[in-house]
Specification:
With about 625 residues, the chain is an alpha+beta fold. It has three domains: about 60-190, no CATH class; about 210-425, no CATH class; about 435-625, no CATH class. It contains 19 helices and 28 strands. Strands 17, 18, 19, 20, 21, 22, 24 and 25 form an eight-stranded antiparallel beta sheet that branches. Strands 1-2-9-10-8-5-4 form a seven-stranded mixed beta sheet, covered by helices on one side. Strands 23-28-27-26 form a four-stranded antiparallel beta sheet. The longest helix is centred in the first third of the chain and has 24 residues, at about 175-200. The radius of gyration is 24 Å and the shape is globular. About 50% of the residues are buried. It comes from Metamycoplasma salivarium. This is Lipoprotein. Keywords: Plasmid. InterPro entries: MYPU_1760-like.
Length: about 625
């Protein structure tokens, strides 16, 4: 596994490897400028050596006191924990940090404002910045990655301040700029986390999920540097059916039985050998995700016949930056894999830069000058630039303005009659429903991040539940509890966030201009999420397994820690929530795919599914069953 990691990351092809020890999703560096030649040296400490190790970290929102091992009383549930390591050490012994304490605080605040998250945020143990790994992972080649086996997100900024082995002291640069450079990567990696919990972790026997052998199932095709696919990953690969279908519909990634030039861009957009001149986005999707035997023969021939020797590029005449090198088959299989499209398409739809509008050059929104005056393209900017900015060269897009101007290879305007926000609504709904928005219990975890011991076996001995609440159900002045059956569990409540843009360029930078599930989809407002305290899995099994039970939310108004008359706020098992659970078509489970792929027996033995059932269509009960 370590050999695989080293080879894949160093080749900058990205990685989705769910193997013998862990599962890592990377955001590689792939862009460079063809015309930005201003390489002025802004160095004011060019002799700094990048030899800092994993010591002297600074923290934001620590869960536990490192000395006492007790929970930090100032820890804010619903916010991420950040750990930043120095990227270099000056000759006078001073450590250099990319963000620093104030920068970490601002990064956290901007994440809460611009990301989409619910109760699953509590499963992220920490976000590390510039953490050093062993030599099997070349962190100078990565913006970030996410590892589900320990629920960590790793971000890297050394390449922003480095020129070879020299590191600049960039403390003079504004925090705003640094946050805007890195925040899209953080949201990208967090969306991998969302996908891991809600989209990928279902079993092949679960009717809510596609397996590779299903008629509309997707397959795992990404190869390592040896040209091999991990059989365990491919065999256990699943995706939520509803999400896959709605995602493909909204982004024109639908399967076509015959070649259709409607989705191929007109050649007048290109003045070079752009891949979209002859290959449409749905064909790229098919090649990366569909069984070879099901791919349209015309499409198959485009990739199977010496694709790597066609010298394709991503470049078009409207892009302010040019991509470096040709488009390789490995790169297509990475970028258009469903695993990688989930965060990329989500970022395109939801991320709103902190700059009014986007200039023709895209500077300070899509790309930035780094500490050495080299162009640095953000995780958000890379996909926007590939798609053309002013005129899209590919219809995997949800915004009306550009779709209605899209001209295909036949000179037609196929999306000219779109209903307003039609595709945007479809895609936003797909993500919002996947995350269980509006369900009072939408999430079940294994309390991994709430345990002091990082040992997986220990972590799996407890579980917790989470979901969504209306503001009218929340009382921030008193402790609230979830009564499951006749047992009471404390809950921690926090604000969630769900946003989407009306246009890919949002000229009015304010939260009020952004869509939410209520304003775009007509859903009721559920502004809050909660998470229960850890519950011993053995207790869950003894009290609830195989039985039917009620779940109630109540407020301890008199602070006596007892459920008294008049303290009930809401009963969760009702027809409304039963209907919503059936609408989202996603199982509430504590299984995580890495447990199944790696045959972690304790994790599999402690895997459960929570369901809401009714025998008569009148009375509704929750039921916990083995999964």
């Amino acid at each position: 596994m370590k050999k695989l990691l080293k080879q894949s990351l160093n080749k900058k092809i990205g990685l989705f490897a769910l193997g013998s020890s862990f599962f890592i999703l990377g955001a590689p560096l792939v862009l460079s400028s063809c015309w930005l030649t201003d390489w002025l040296n802004k160095n004011n400490n060019s002799n700094n050596k990048g030899n800092a190790e994993n010591h002297n970290p600074i923290y934001y929102n620590q869960r536990y006191d490192l000395t006492t091992k007790q929970k930090n009383p100032n820890y804010k549930v619903g916010e991420l924990t950040f750990v930043e390591y120095p990227y270099a050490k000056k000759s006078d012994g001073t450590y250099l940090y990319f963000f620093g304490s104030q920068g970490l605080k601002q990064l956290s605040q901007k994440f809460l404002e611009k990301a989409n998250f619910g109760p699953e945020i509590t499963e992220i143990k920490e976000v590390t910045i510039n953490k050093n790994y062993d030599k099997t992972i070349d962190t100078n080649q990565l913006n970030g990655f996410y590892t589900p086996h320990n629920n960590e997100i790793a971000l890297f900024t050394k390449h922003i301040v480095a020129n070879g082995t020299r590191y600049v002291d960039w403390s003079y640069e504004t925090i705003d700029k640094k946050v805007n450079m890195v925040l899209p990567t953080l949201i990208h990696e967090y969306t991998h986390h969302i996908a891991n919990i809600y989209n990928n972790s279902g079993k092949k026997t679960d009717l809510n999920y596609y397996s590779p052998n299903d008629e509309n199932g997707l397959v795992y095709k990404m190869k390592n540097s040896l040209g091999q696919i991990d059989d365990r990953v491919a065999e256990n690969y699943t995706n939520n059916k509803k999400f896959v279908d709605e995602f493909r519909e909204a982004l024109n990634y639908k399967h076509h039985t015959t070649y259709d030039e409607k989705l191929l861009a007109n050649s007048d957009l290109f003045d070079n050998n752009n891949v979209f001149r002859t290959i449409s986005s749905w064909e790229l999707f098919e090649w990366a995700n569909i069984k070879d035997t099901k791919i349209n023969p015309i499409t198959f021939s485009k990739f199977a016949n010496n694709f790597d020797f066609q010298n394709y590029t991503w470049n078009n005449r409207y892009s302010p930056l040019q991509f470096q090198g040709r488009v390789s088959l490995n790169r297509v299989e990475y970028l258009y894999s469903f695993e990688e499209l989930i965060p990329r398409e989500f970022l395109k739809m939801t991320y709103n830069p902190d700059v009014e509008g986007i200039s023709l050059s895209g500077e300070n929104t899509l790309w930035f000058y780094d500490a050495w005056s080299k162009p640095y393209v953000s995780a958000y900017g890379e996909d926007i630039i590939r798609n053309g900015i002013r005129y899209i060269v590919s219809p995997n897009w949800v915004f009306d303005t550009q779709l209605k101007m899209f001209k295909n290879a036949n000179g037609e305007i196929p999306f000219s009659n779109l209903v307003k926000y039609q595709n945007l609504k479809k895609l936003f709904k797909a993500y919002v429903d996947l995350m269980g928005y509006g369900l009072p219990i939408s999430y079940m975890g294994n309390s991994k991040t709430l345990a002091l011991d990082n040992n997986v076996a220990t972590d799996l001995k407890s579980t917790n539940f989470g979901g969504y609440l209306k503001s009218s159900q929340v009382d921030m002045s008193n402790q609230q509890y979830l009564r499951i059956g006749n047992k009471d569990y404390k809950i921690s409540i926090f604000k969630n966030n769900f946003v989407a843009k009306p246009e890919y360029v949002n000229y009015t930078i304010s939260k009020s201009n952004m869509f939410n599930p209520h304003s775009l989809l007509g859903y009721e407002n559920y502004e809050y999420s909660y998470i229960t305290e850890p519950i011993q899995t053995s207790t869950v099994f003894q009290n609830y397994f195989g039985s039917k039970f009620d779940v109630k939310l109540w407020t301890d108004k008199n602070n006596n820690k007892q459920f008294d008359v008049g303290e009930e706020v809401s009963q969760f098992n009702n027809v409304k929530n039963y209907t919503r659970l059936n609408e989202i078509k996603r199982s509430i489970i504590n299984l995580r795919k890495y447990l199944e792929t790696n045959s972690v027996s304790e994790g599999l033995n402690r895997s459960y599914k929570l369901d809401l059932t009714s025998d008569d269509g009148i009375n509704y009960k929750y039921k916990l069953m083995k999964y």
